[in-house]
Amino acid sequence: MSFSLTEEEEAFYEILAIHQTALQDFEVIKEVVKEVTAIIKKNAAQPDWYKKSDTKAQIMLSVKRILSRKGIGAELQEILNEIMEQAEERYKEWNYEVA
Fold first, then answer.
1. Could you give the CA distance from residue 6 to residue 21 in angstroms, rounded to a whole number?
2. Residue 61 in 3-state DSSP?
3. What separation in angstroms does the CA of 95 have from each of 42, 45, 49?
4. Least confident of 23-27, 36-40, 78-82
5. What number is the average pLDDT over the span 45-73?
């Protein structure tokens, strides 16, 4: 069964899927995941992005807006923290030159 998500998107999907009080609709979760992944990849294209507090703050704000717009109120901060941890882990060594 394919969710039509990339491996990168699946990591963020798992975070949202665990927090069942946040979202239940698979299609909405998929939309959120695709938007979140795009924002993170765009910002992670900068060298050492994870060391720059302004870049991290910009990513967090963008992700928070996406989550809020999709109606996630419950567990918002916890989800946001987990997404940022995953982003840093996954994109810390991302080869931005190929992006």
1. 24
2. helix
3. 12, 8, 12
4. 23-27
5. 90
